[in-house]
Specification:
It is built from eleven helices and 21 strands. The protein has helices spanning 5-24, 247-254, 257-268, 299-303, 309-324, 337-356, 360-378, 402-415, 417-430, 438-449, 454-462; strands at residues 46-56, 65-75, 79-85, 91-96, 99-100, 103-106, 109-118, 123-132, 142-146, 149-153, 174-182, 186-189, 192-198, 202-208, 220-223, 225-231, 237-243, 278-281, 295-298, 329-331, 434-436. Bound molecules: zinc ion (ZN).
């Protein structure tokens, strides 16, 4: 149909405004959401609701995986451009609401020009066709090569080295993983199975989370694995993923999980997710990691002789406790990491006390002795110094582990066991499936204790020196000798 002058003018205007958006945009730059420890992590202007991530694994770790990541979000302000966190992969194309879009990289951001303005409050879908490269520097996190495939370790800031997204725990979302791999391999991801399709030579496995998840807690395991099933409290489906050859050897450990779940539920209330289990990977990471519903463990933790049984049990409980503290209730910023690690270390120590007669008081007294040195080395629990460029994981310092469990011990001494237990239960109930701040924790503690604990927390969370321990005026910090070292336990669980 021939164009009339009015329609011609309208068409011209429309092209003018699209070109207008593109024309007026400044040079792309990396953005962040103001996290003091990660200035360029996360992005403003939208709230991710869900990720649908398709990955195709060719069978060797030398070749990048082919991938399509679809992000459904809601604009929280009018957008002409969308910044995503993405690195360590190449981008073939990007679509916004189904329309091909211009994109560029700036630092570790993928900057996408919206074909047309996206009004605040409206839904937006971004589809990125890209690769995902497992061959990067392991110290930076992301994919973890194993003896028979791959796993993920994205904490704290590495999920965007696997897939594009809003890589910050302040923006949690639902996840669907669709992973295609050679037929002889098994794929398990966080969440519940949501279908399996066979093709010639390959299989596509689909998994979906039932609860929102932070990007840093995503887990996908590809390998020659056995999946072992059992039942937890209240009929909770428990599934463990282990190298086929190790299933018998690992069973004595794996069968402990239901009782550990029951013990944690007795402490803080119902398990917050749809399933749980251990991913035992044949790889050396130097840490364990609480990926959501499927915690990552090094095989050697269970197979190497020399680790006392109580110690391995307590590390299992550390990662389990994170499902409540860190996963269901995520840190709003990485300065709140002490809430994750302090709690996981606290329940690890409590479990060792109740099941192996390792008094919490002795461990806390040892921690107190070292606390000043830990604070001098990396800053106080909630006021940690930014990471050093050459030491990426220095965020995970002793002061956020035993140094922060010490804060919880002091709090329990200060407000009493009953109030402390009520605080713990209320915290995970009120902030379930969300992210929360240190200030919210201290405010809740004051409310439950019925008095203002600001001064108490200022000293314990932000003080250069460790305050006196309530009820233990004789405890001293900075005793010479083994100051600064972690209490006798290696390797450090994440
Ligand atoms: Zn941890």
């Amino acid at each position: 149909m021939p164009l009339t002058s009015r329609r011609l003018r309208a068409a011209l205007l429309a092209t003018a405004s699209v070109t207008l958006v593109a024309a007026t945009l400044p040079a792309p730059e990396p953005l962040g959401i103001g996290d003091r420890l990660f200035p360029h992590l996360g992005n403003p202007g939208y709230d991710v609701l869900s990720y649908d991530i398709s990955l195709t694994y060719g069978g060797s770790n030398g070749k990048p995986l082919d991938a399509v990541t679809t992000i459904d979000a809601r604009a929280t302000e009018t957008l002409e451009r969308i910044n995503l966190d993405f690195a360590r992969g190449s981008v073939r194309s990007v679509e916004v609401n189904g329309r091909e879009s211009e994109f560029a990289t700036a630092g570790e951001d993928l900057v996408v020009d919206a074909p047309s303005r996206i009004p605040a409050g409206t839904p937006v879908r971004v589809t990125v066709r890209h690769t995902s490269d497992p061959s990067g520097d392991q110290a930076d996190g992301g994919w973890v090569p194993t003896a028979d495939g791959l796993a993920m370790a994205n904490q704290a800031d590495a999920a965007h080295r696997v897939f594009p997204g809003n890589d910050h725990p302040a923006d949690k979302a639902y996840f669907t993983f669709r992973v295609t791999a050679p037929k002889d391999l098994t794929v398990v991801a966080g969440g519940l199975p949501a279908g399996k399709r066979d093709h010639a030579g390959t299989t596509t496995w689909t998994y979906r989370t039932v609860h929102p998840m932070a990007t840093e807690l995503a887990q996908v395991s590809i390998g020659r694995s056995a999946v072992l099933h059992r039942t937890g409290p209240g009929g909770l489906p428990v599934r463990d993923v282990v190298p086929v050859a190790d299933r018998e050897k690992l069973e004595p450990w794996l069968k402990k999980t239901p009782a550990q779940l029951a013990w944690m539920e007795k402490q803080v209330g119902p398990y917050p997710f749809e399933t749980y289990g251990l991913l035992v990977a044949d790889t050396e990471t130097g840490f364990e990691l609480e990926t959501q519903t499927l915690s990552l463990f090094e095989r050697s933790l269970f197979t190497r002789t020399g680790y006392p049984e109580w110690y391995v049990d307590s590390v299992m409980v550390h990662e389990l406790a994170h499902q409540w503290f860190g996963n269901s209730v995520s840190p709003r910023s990485w300065s709140d990491l002490w809430l994750n690690e302090g709690h996981a270390t606290w329940y690890e120590a409590r479990y060792a006390e109740e099941h192996a007669q390792k008094p919490v008081e002795r461990r806390m007294r040892e921690a107190y002795a070292r606390s000043d040195a830990w604070r001098a080395a990396g800053g106080p629990p909630a006021g940690g110094a930014p990471r050093t460029p050459d030491h990426k994981i220095s965020l995970f310092r002793p002061v956020v582990y035993d140094g922060s469990a010490l804060v919880l011990y002091a709090l329990r001494e200060e407000i009493g066991e009953a109030a402390f237990d009520r605080l713990e239960r209320t915290w995970v109930r009120v902030h379930r499936d969300g992210s929360a701040t240190t200030r919210q924790f201290t405010a809740l503690a004051s409310r439950i204790a019925g008095r203002d604990l600001t001064a108490f927390f200022d000293g314990w969370l932000y003080g250069k020196k460790t305050p006196p321990m309530p009820g233990h005026p004789d405890w001293r910090s900075g005793t010479p000798g083994n100051a600064g070292k972690s209490p006798a336990r290696t390797p450090k669980p994440e």
